[in-house]
Design brief:
A two-stranded antiparallel ribbon has the order 1-2. Helix 3 crosses helix 5. It has helices spanning 3-7, 15-38, 45-57, 64-70, 78-87, 109-118, 132-146; strands spanning 91-95, 103-107. By secondary structure, the chain is mainly alpha-helical. It folds into two domains: 1-41, no CATH class; 42-120, Winged helix-like DNA-binding domain superfamily/Winged helix DNA-binding domain (Arc Repressor Mutant, subunit A), CATH 1.10.10.10.
């Protein structure tokens, strides 16, 4: 279904305005679907993002600042997310032995196991209707917008 039908708006100021609205709408649409896929696993999109960052860092620890730097949603409260993941025993926090002002965050085996289970449902499935070339072209266009 095209954007006009989705939001019940037949005209836009120009093609750029239409594309912008379409990007916002599609971003929200993708996030809603991703959230629904994650719900059975008991994690949110930002929590999943933090777990992936920690898995990529493993076995090196991460700091809250590193997580903030790498998170997809820069407005997320990384400390609060780590609190929730720690309560679920998916991450641990320990004082850095070389800098007492720093807290090291590590993914636990339970966190690794959860991510392994979730790997099969991740992201790309929503884009499966695109060809490889279309997906490459879409990525190129999105990178161009941000540059």
């Amino acid at each position: 279904m095209n954007i006009e039908e989705e939001i019940k708006q037949s005209t836009f100021k120009d093609a750029y305005h239409k594309a912008y609205i379409n990007i916002l709408y599609t971003s929200n649409w993708l996030q809603q679907r991703q959230s629904a896929l994650f719900k059975p696993f008991g994690v949110t999109l930002p929590q999943y993002n933090v777990l992936r960052i920690l898995r990529g860092q493993f076995p090196k620890p991460a700091t809250v600042n590193l997580l903030i730097e790498r998170m997809l949603d820069k407005t997320s409260n990384a400390s609060r997310i780590v609190d929730k993941l720690e309560a679920k025993k998916l991450v641990t926090r320990e004082q850095c032995p070389t800098d007492r002002r720093t807290v090291d965050i590590l993914i636990t085996q339970q966190g690794m196991d959860l991510l392994k289970e979730m790997d099969s449902i991740e992201g790309g499935s929503q884009l499966g209707i695109l060809t490889q070339d279309e997906a490459d072209h879409l990525s190129l266009l999105l990178d161009k917008i941000r540059s």
